[in-house]
User: Which sequence fits this backbone?
């Protein structure tokens, strides 16, 4: 009889301690998991957007190659023309192969972010743990109905079990996230640095390609008509005005370069546990911008825009 | 100057040259030139553009190779995250087991 009383007292004591813990750290753990989740979401969107940017860069590269081939064509013989187009095709095929590898790699990076997001999103309720733990209380009640009827701070055990489970689960999840974050930090940092390097090369190439296209367009539509004899086109002044207003359309690739920089700094902040709402907001904005620009280009495929 | 800095500077010069060769001034100069000069200029434009393509491809292929080198670690990281997710499932299994033990215990220890 004394043993049973002692056992019951111990169980209630343990429960009281367990149920008192949640309020101490549950909110902090949930906030931390939310940081992981939002960072991972931005990373996933970035990996998706990079694929669109790579496609756009290839289209620009082919357009520039075609422009140069057409420019040179009148002053080349047939053999020279053939050699010129074959040489460019070889390099463009190589470019396409590199970009395909980069896209494939972006999908692997996406897989990492999705796994991170899934781990961060999982909570006690979605894992089915709450039901199991309620079963646990029921089982305790089977040993002693007094436990099932017990109250802590005026609340019944059943009412308090959920925060306790959240806390226990959150601790486990939090430890797993932190452990994986630290373990994978060098890989992710290297990855983001390389992504940034690739996007910088692509941005420089696109900028130069679009400048070359704009130069040829201005020459044909503005400068030569003015220099040569004859009547100027009716919209000549408008063409000139548009040229001054034109900004080389690098919005998507510039946004991608900016986004990868923000993701890198956000990752460092995540590792150091100082990723605040403002930084997350900036990250989401940057990633959303890439998608917006690329979608805008897809809907309205002009070579430049006015801002 | 490092090899990559030299390559960057070369690319910059080549891009500037290509742009000049597409300008109105260049076109007007060539208009007065003989056929041989025009042919030579056309070949130069092609060579410049081809060199740009090649140098950009070399830069990108180096980065691509480094990214592929990183793939194994990235995949390992992804697997570790998925494994951690399974570990969370083990908490549920452990609690189920405890429930089972307690239920059995309840049958042995009579309630009072």
Assistant:
């Amino acid at each position: 009889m004394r043993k049973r009383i002692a056992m019951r007292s111990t169980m209630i004591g343990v429960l009281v301690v367990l149920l008192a813990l949640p309020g101490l750290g549950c909110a902090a753990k949930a906030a931390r998991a939310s940081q992981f989740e939002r960072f991972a979401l931005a990373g996933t969107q970035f990996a998706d957007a990079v694929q669109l940017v790579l496609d756009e860069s290839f289209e620009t590269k082919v357009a520039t190659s075609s422009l140069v081939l057409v420019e040179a064509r009148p002053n080349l013989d047939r053999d020279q023309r053939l050699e010129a187009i074959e040489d460019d095709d070889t390099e463009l095929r190589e470019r396409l192969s590199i970009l395909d590898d980069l896209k494939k790699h972006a999908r692997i990076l996406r897989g990492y972010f999705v796994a991170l997001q899934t781990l961060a999103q999982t909570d006690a309720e979605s894992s089915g743990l709450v039901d199991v733990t309620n079963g646990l209380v029921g089982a305790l009640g089977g040993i002693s109905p007094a436990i099932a009827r017990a109250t802590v701070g005026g609340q019944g055990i059943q009412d308090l079990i959920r925060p306790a489970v959240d806390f226990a689960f959150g601790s486990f999840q939090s430890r797993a996230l932190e452990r994986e974050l630290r373990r994978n930090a060098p890989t992710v940092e290297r990855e983001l640095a390389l992504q940034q390097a690739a996007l910088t090369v692509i941005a420089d190439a696109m900028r130069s390609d679009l400048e070359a296209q704009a130069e040829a367009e201005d020459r044909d539509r503005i400068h030569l008509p003015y220099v040569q004899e004859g009547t100027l086109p009716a919209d000549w002044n408008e063409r000139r005005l548009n040229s001054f207003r034109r900004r080389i359309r690098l919005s998507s690739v510039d946004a991608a370069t900016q986004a990868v920089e923000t993701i890198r700094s956000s990752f460092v902040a995540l590792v150091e546990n100082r990723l605040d709402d403002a930084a997350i907001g900036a990250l989401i904005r940057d990633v959303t911008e890439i998608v917006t620009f690329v979608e805008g280009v897809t809907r309205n495929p002009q070579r430049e825009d006015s801002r | 100057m490092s090899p990559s800095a030299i390559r960057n500077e070369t690319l910059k010069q080549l891009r500037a040259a290509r742009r000049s060769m597409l300008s109105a001034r260049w076109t007007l100069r060539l208009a007065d030139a003989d056929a041989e000069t025009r042919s030579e200029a056309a070949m130069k434009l092609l060579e410049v553009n081809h060199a740009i393509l090649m140098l950009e491809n070399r830069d990108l292929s180096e980065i691509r190779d480094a990214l592929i080198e990183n793939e194994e670690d990235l995949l390992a990281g992804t697997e570790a995250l998925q494994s951690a997710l399974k570990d969370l499932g083990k908490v549920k299994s452990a609690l189920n087991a405890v429930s089972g033990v307690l239920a059995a215990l309840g049958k042995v220890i009579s309630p009072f």
